[in-house]
User: What shape does this take?
Amino acid sequence: MAYPQGSRAPLEFGGPLGAAALMVLLPATMFHLLLVARSGPARLLGPPPYLPGPDVLWSPRVLLLWLAWLGLQAALYLLPARKVAEGLELKDKSRLRYPINGFQALVLTALLVGLAVSAGLPLGALPEMLVPLAFAATLTALIFSFLLYLKALGVPPSALAPGGTSGNPIYDFFLGRELNPRICSFDFKYFCELRPGLIGWVLINLALLIQEAELRGSPSLAMWLVNGFQLLYVGDALWHEEAVLTTMDITHDGFGFMLAFGDLAWVPFTYSLQAQFLLHHPQPLGLPMASAICLINALGYYIFRRANSQKNTFRKNPSDPRVAGLETIPTATGRQLLVSGWWGMVRHPNYLGDLIMALAWSLPCGVSHLLPYFYFLYFTALLVHREARDEQQCLQKYGLAWQEYCRRVPYRILPYVY
Ligand code: NDP
Assistant: This one.
């Protein structure tokens, strides 16, 4: 791991070179997946069926549609919230306030889309626009990241993220300089984390299901499963929206190209890959196999939800009766670390549950192609890397107590394996 000059924060992602490479590779991979998913052979490895020209990528009408989507989600964000939550304490000892109305935004979006479809909106035409839409989202993320970078030049040092202040403009542009960029109470990072991309993902899935019904008379069982599983995942994330306030994305990472592109473009256009694949490559799926896949998803969801809820409950109130009986390790910061329950099984049980669900989302697509397993493979790499980043931060935060935790709970994600 490289260390920037004059700073103690280690450079991540391979430093400026790695950041520059990722800024090219991530969008290129997204477009590759979009093009390959609709091609006959659907080969994950190998060249795309064609290179899209400007006429395929660029459409002012689609850009307007994308901007209208962002505008709609921003308007829903500004509606009165059932709760306003406080984030963690910042360097200047203040706490920011966040509206908890993401689930409400999902429900209102569903109602509005339902009304629009019954009034004749051809949602089934959306899959044909995925490539120019992804281009519009990438362009927006790029311009947005530039504006965020410029905005961060005028903020006090206490408002900067620990990792985005290396002094190297490429690296800082990628990682994000300002921790919580806002205009008045509108928090750009918090808004982008769970709304336009995540709700957009399930909307794209729904459009693919509708188009499949138009093409083949009814949606396939595999398409229903993928839609249902992923809707559960998105609904869960928005229902537990407050939990995002303690994640690394909000508390540690600045808001730069990495998160802007990830939230706005990568999530909706690559996470919907299984549904895209199924539209163009229908897969037979019998009831026994479908039931087994549902069980795998349910197991993953159970581990994911219970582990996340246990930690969130404990962090909010360690005396809560649901967690008060768990064994803990004290740390010099005054906080404790759970060493029994889910967090005594492995050091990231929530990642294990997430990965089991990722596998269940790919299985309905059969085993004839590697492409629908891209999400599972990419997500494994992402979570292994994220786990290492988190461990590094926890070691800095908790020192000896973290080392003791690692000794007591030796496995990171998968018991007895990793
Ligand atoms: P986690 O929810 O795993 O939180 C990690 C933090 O938890 C640590 O920094 C530490 O923070 C605290 N912690 C760690 N061990 C313990 C312990 N033993 N006892 C108490 N606290 C502990 O972080 P993520 O933000 O990575 O993940 C959140 C969820 O989002 C996960 O379920 C993950 O799978 C999912 N995710 C999904 C993605 C997707 O694209 N679908 C991408 C990334 C994440 P502290 O001590 O400061 O509280």
